[in-house]
Fold:
Amino acid sequence: MKKAMITRRPHLISNLAFLLLCLGLTHQLPSLILLSLSYFLLTRFAAAPGGLAWRNHPTNLPGPIGWPLLGSIPTMGTLAHRKLASLSSSLGATRLMAFSLGSKRVIISSHPDVAKEILTATSFSDRPMKESARLLMFERAMGFAPSGEYWRQLRRIAASHMFSPRRIQRLEGVRQRIGDEMEMGLWGEMVGRGVVELKGVLQRGALRNVVESVFGMIMGRMDGGDDHHHGDEVELGLMINEGYDLIARFNWEDYFPLKLLDFYGVKRRCHRLALKVRALVGRLIRDRREGGCEGMDDFLSVLLRLPKEEQLSDEDMVAVLWEMVFRGTDTVAILLEWAMARMVLHPEIQAKAQEELDRVVGPNGPVNDTHLPNLPYIQAIVKETLRMHPPGPLLSWARLATHDVHVDKVLIPAGTTAMVNMWAIAHDPSIWADPWTFRPERFVEEEVSVMGSDLRLAPFGSGRRVCPGKALGLATVHLWLARLLHHFEWRGTGLVDLSECLRLSMEMKKPLKCRIKCRNSSSSGGGVGVV
Structure:
């Protein structure tokens, strides 16, 4: 009996400390006294490698003890990928490290072999659910639905109908038309202001591309113009930005059992936004069903034309279509801004890419998808940008162990969150020569797939939860990057700041500002420009 009490004591102590903190938060006792007592109890009785959450699951994995109660939450901060990479390296734990986020057990790998174990194992086929993501994605979207028959059905629909090579090819017209609009917008900014702030143009173009691909709404000019769909586009853009803000916000409920509380009003705002999403996307579904979808190639029409045995309910279609708009907008714009920042910083690389374009496309010819396989240096620039600046440095969404599983010969208990630090892998000098140097030639000299088979560079994930839209996203980035480099010369306006800001994706903290000059007669400025 005495032994059992001793075994349970750390758990009881940690619960007592948690209760004391809750009392402090509700001001029932002086906070300073409670925090001091909590600190004493936790450091005296509950310290363990990996932190408090691992106390009842001893492991030989290295890891930080972390802060009392909070674990490694303070370590995450604004650039968690860099801090976790540094911590793993200092502890000699690049293969696998244990740590705590509040009451949640977490492991993280910064090694491609162990990362592959995590990402391809059936034991990690589910995701831990952030409360904001659960509310905003309705638990029915492809990236967030639990593993099971419904989730497998969505994957089949995506692979066979929505992201097939034929479907991507048929959407080239949308990408080309929006590419034209972006170039006109860029040249208009250059003429009017003498400088281009690329981020806004790319974000509007990426949003429009996704909206037209998903809903088939043919918009007017990018400045709004005379367009009865413009209001829906603006509303979707506002909802997406609010969703990014909510998912990026710290929420205590993601790390502690606090479901009855709503710190900072995150859940309340998520509920309000979810109602707006249901109303707008639901109306678009009803309008399309009533108007018919013959001859339409957008994703909504694809879903409505599915065979009866594969059809989704309207509620499920809302979740699936909203997720495509929500997750498909920022990656393209962010990746292109990073790529263009590198082109401004490295004019010799820009010139080499433009020489390839002139040779393959011709100095005045329009770039199209058929040229892309013959542009290996353009593809290498995209890969090197993904390596240096992966949009999801921690692969955005972690995995959840559905049962006890061995990872790198270590037993990991069910319910543990598993993360992969793709940023750390991509900057590891034992994997990449000169990892801090932007050198696209490395991908010309060696073929490296970014589609998930090679975990040295898997920015879209791997295994069952790999991003289903990766091929469409890359087709868009390759085409738009080729067009921007073919039509314009890019120069900086001063120092290019490569500081990072991690929200839903890893963005440039300070938007890129540059000057452009038209290179050919097909450019939007009619061949005249100044640097």
Observations:
- The longest helix spans residues 314-345.
- The two ends are 81 Å apart (CA to CA).
